[in-house]
Known about the structure:
Layout: H1 9-18, H2 23-36, E1 43-46, H3 48-63, E2 74-78, H4 105-112, E3 116-121, H5 160-167, E4 173-177, H6 184-190, E5 193-196, E6 217-221, H7 224-234, E7 264-268, H8 278-293, E8 297-301, H9 309-324, H10 342-353, H11 356-369, H12 374-395, E9 401-405, H13 420-424, H14 431-436, E10 440-447, E11 453-460, H15 465-479
Helix pairs in contact: 2-3, 5-6, 7-15, 9-11, 9-12
Amino acid sequence: MTDLTALTIAAARKGLEAGDFTALELTDAYLDAVDDAATLNAFITPTPEKARQMAKASDARLSRGEAGALEGIPLGIKDLFCTSGVLTTAGSHILDGFTPGYESFITANLWNAGAVLLGKLNMDEFAMGSSNETSYYGNVINPWRRSGDETALVPGGSSGGSAAAVAARLCAAATGTDTGGSIRQPASFTGLVGLKPTYGRCSRWGIVAFASSLDQAGPLTRDVRDAAIMTGVMAGFDPMDSTSINKDVPDYEAALSSDIRGLKVGIPREYRVEGMAGEISQMWQRGADWLKSAGAEIIEVSLPNTHLALPAYYIVAPAEASSNLARYDGVKYGLRAEGEDITSMYENTRAAGFGAEVKRRVMIGTYVLSAGYYDAYYLKAQQVRTLIKNDFDKVFETVDMLLTPTTPNAAFAPGEITDPVTMYLNDVFTVTANLAGLPGISIPAALSGEGLPLGLQLIGKPFDEQTLLRTAGVLEEAAGFDAVPGKWWVEK
Length: 492
């Protein structure tokens, strides 16, 4: 039998419908792969028994001709999504033992479409990180290695477990969340497609909050078609989320085609940052050439406030985090560290439950929201955010989308970056889309000189994921990226 874990969602769906294999056989193949890959630390909570039950239910529906859009497809879920009856930790010690009695809107949609839960995936604590080094449950290891070098590498973050699991063929696809690049950056580091939809396209209800005005759920997949399939199921209006947009969800998969003739693609000059590796610049130019050859018009554009995006983001996001994380106090759920009185119990619980990066961001956020500094920092950052959005609005009067690199570098080793500001620079190309609420997608486009994946990013107009996916498909075909990591983690 074909290696079932090598199949894309589209191919697996076809095989299931044809009866070439069962959902249970497909699920068992992935569960075996998960068992073999413990060294990657991609899963916090595998759910093999639940997966087999769901797979058997899928087989019954397939036999009755009642297949959903993801019938029998085994998925991994970032441990930021609440899943009924399954431990949900957000990668943090403070949520030890938290088992929700409800499903997030996104995961409910996936199960209603027939998907199978393989387990909950590791992540940076409360989605705060760019390397998956802040998880209470330990680092996730990137399945990719530099050529001729056995040094472990990070998978990116915060959706590092999702990226590693999909790249290592431990699940057919995975959910992620993107607050400043946390889907697109790990996708670039692991040779995957990562899509951040428009803010409000996917409900945030039942997702543990980091920064409420920036967070957006999306998929990490092996190709663009799978991203279209996943997004079509994940998206939709949710009255439980006040920021959810009541717009019909298009058939994203049907919108895929190779015709981008007449499309106008902008190249923002401000994204040519100092110190960017030459191979990143060359890949970016090749991407523009590929689109031009397919009939697109390439136009240089300006986003003059781009240089303000990263500092504005790292004021807005910690401010919202400090507010959102105030609910974790040890009273009703999760970790409780006892104290002499209720105040000391709060203090002891939060001191023991939060990691260093979460504490850093909560303290920054509390500082910028304080009475003496609110106007100087938080209000100013919100004004800058408006300027950044206005830049995009103006540019999108003349172009349909933007083409940029996804990251300024390839994957690096754990511990290689110890300065927080240097780590934050991993988000330099991605945070603007979050600040402006725009859709963005990363597509694997090349290998670095060290044999590591590099990604190109497309940023589109609000709620124009169809054009974004169609253009991404053209880039994917032109790049012909078919490299996969060697399965060194299962070598005996």
